[in-house]
Design brief:
By secondary structure, the chain is of the alpha/beta class. The chain has two domains: 107 residues, ornithine cyclodeaminase, domain 1, CATH 3.30.1780; 183 residues, 3-Layer(aba) Sandwich (Rossmann fold), CATH 3.40.50. Helix content is 38%, strand content 25%. An eight-stranded parallel β-sheet has the order 10-9-8-11-12-15-13-14. Strands 1, 2, 3, 4, 5, 6 and 7 form a seven-stranded mixed β-sheet that branches. The protein is globular.
């Protein structure tokens, strides 16, 4: 049995490699090659269990996640991969942030304008840095604005990312409206229960990723954005209808129809031609964890 630490995960799978792996995972999902049981939720979301079985290879992954939004990191997880005569146990926290960043990279590559150069990140928690790394892997970003409730954390994250990406100008701020006013791409990675901004504050052409809200009671995006966006994409329709607060709210209000939600796997097989405002909403599905675990088990 192979046991991998967080450092092992990062050393083995780069962000570009993770994006490629997750892209292939969603193509496999679209082809019907996964069995994805519904996510098990315990203690009002304090503990989650996710699993995925890939039928062609008879490989499977199980992830146990503990969530405490009052601690840092808020997510602590363990991943178990089972293959043909082999088993891998790996730090699931690093896999979760890596695969969540990777799916944003896949979505951004599909929906953001090819000449996008301005990124805004809302949120400074454990998921934040990989959101930036993923977007920078698929677009030539020149400027990135980091905004969060705590100025010191926004400043610290901006400094750390500037060291990692010296050709990009990083600017910390506490004003979300100022940060999104001229953005080409926006990444939301918060635990907010209310929308982070009004739709009127957005540029007419912008791509928005939202990965922070993973419970029906949570919201990052305003209802009006989902109602008026040119395209709304989700990682998996079934998961979004079960867990995504913004999608559940918009459907209940009748401003979005279930048939209008484009699944990521479908978009990869029949690529859309995005215009105006586009949205990618992710709650995370097991094929993402499988994709990263496979890259770790079979480097």
């Amino acid at each position: 049995m192979k046991v991998l630490t967080a450092a092992d995960v990062r050393r083995t799978v780069s962000m570009p490699a993770a994006i490629d792996a997750v892209r292939q995972g969603f193509l496999e999902l679209a082809a019907g090659n996964f069995v994805l049981p519904a996510r098990q939720i315990f203690g009002d979301g304090a503990v989650l269990v996710m699993s995925a079985y890939h039928s062609p290879t008879r490989t499977a992954v199980v992830k146990k996640i503990g969530i405490n939004l009052d601690q840092v990191p808020a997510i602590r997880a363990t991943v178990i991969w089972t293959g043909a005569g082999e088993q891998l146990v790996a730090d699931g926290t690093s896999i979760t942030t890596l695969r969540t960043g990777a799916v944003v990279g896949v979505a951004t590559d599909l929906l953001a304008q090819p000449d996008a150069t301005r990124l805004t990140l809302i949120g400074t928690g454990a998921q934040a840095a990989d959101q930036v790394r993923a977007v920078l892997a698929v677009r030539r970003i020149a400027t990135a604005t980091i905004t969060g409730r705590k100025p010191d954390r926004a400043t610290a994250l901006a400094k750390a990312l500037a060291t990692e990406f010296p050709t990009v100008t990083f600017t910390p701020t506490t004003s979300i409206d100022d940060a999104i006013a001229t953005a080409d791409i926006i990444c939301c990675a918060t635990s907010s229960s209310i929308p982070l901004f009004d739709v009127a504050a957005l540029p007419q052409t912008v791509h928005i990723n939202a990965i922070g809200a993973f419970r029906p009671t949570m919201r990052e995006l305003p209802r009006d954005l989902l109602a008026t966006a040119d395209l709304v994409m989700v990682d998996q329709r079934e998961a979004a209808l079960e867990e995504c607060g913004e999608i559940i709210d918009a459907l209940a209000a009748g401003v979005v129809q279930e048939s209008e939600l484009l699944e990521l796997g479908t978009a990869l097989t029949t690529k859309p031609k995005p215009t105006g405002r586009t949205v990618f909403k992710s709650v995370g599905v097991g094929c993402q964890d499988w994709s990263i675990a496979k890259a770790l088990a079979e480097p």
